[in-house]
Design a protein that fits this description.
single chain, alpha+beta, Protein Transport Mog1p, Chain A, seven-stranded antiparallel β-sheet, two-stranded antiparallel sheet, disordered N terminus, signal, Lipoprotein LpqN
């Protein structure tokens, strides 16, 4: 019996690194293109044996959870009443979350924005959402370096940066994984605290 052999090269990426991007807050949309994957299969002559059945895991989605990381979604007067940040290209099969979440003992809420079924590289969509948040708060101080943090149970990457000239102030965080991207504007915080809050919120927004 002859068996045709094939070698498939697998390339994986598991290293978090700091990401520097331009804080140009123009209204241009994301420039990434949908990535494509090619699967190579080996034809194997195995008599009287069926190939094992495999089930692809369902892609995760995002939802406007009533609570996220212990913070309560605001309704009524405190709710987001309009699209305050351009989310980028939205297709019929995509979900957009844009909600305010209450921070205890603070007047300013956390603004959370997330999308799923992203057609381009999710890190590209994350940067687009970041620029929208910077435009929303009127940041005009040039380039920003985002620092990596532990992403939590859903993996991918989480990065945050301080959009403030002081050591505490507006912190912007974002995640990107295989299918979804999300960002948040966390007011009156330092980087480490904001990153912890953001990862906890992501655990309830992404499902």
């Amino acid at each position: 019996m002859r068996i045709a052999q094939a070698v498939v090269a697998l390339v994986g990426a598991g290293v978090l690194s700091a990401c520097t991007f331009s804080a140009d807050v123009g209204t241009g949309g994301p420039t990434g293109k949908p990535s494509s994957r090619t699967t190579t299969r080996a034809d194997v002559d195995v008599p009287d044996q069926q190939a094992p059945q495999t089930t692809q895991p369902q892609a995760r989605r995002v939802t406007a959870a009533a609570q996220a990381g212990g913070l309560v979604k605001l309704t009524g007067q405190g709710a987001v009443s309009d699209v305050v940040v351009d989310p980028g290209e939205m297709r019929p099969d995509m979900t957009l979350v844009m909600e305010n979440y209450k921070v205890p003992a603070q007047n300013e809420p956390v603004l959370m924005i997330a999308v799923d079924n992203v057609p381009e590289e999710t890190s590209t969509r994350r940067q687009h959402l970041w620029r929208g948040l910077l435009q929303h708060i009127g940041w005009t101080h040039g380039n920003i370096t985002a620092e990596p943090y532990e992403p939590g149970k859903y993996g991918g990457s989480v990065e945050c940066f301080l959009a403030s000239l002081a050591e505490t102030g507006n912190v912007v965080c974002g995640w990107a994984d295989e299918n979804t991207a999300g960002v948040a504007l966390i007011p009156n915080s330092d980087l480490a605290t904001a990153a912890s809050v953001f990862v906890a919120m992501r655990g309830d927004i992404e499902i």
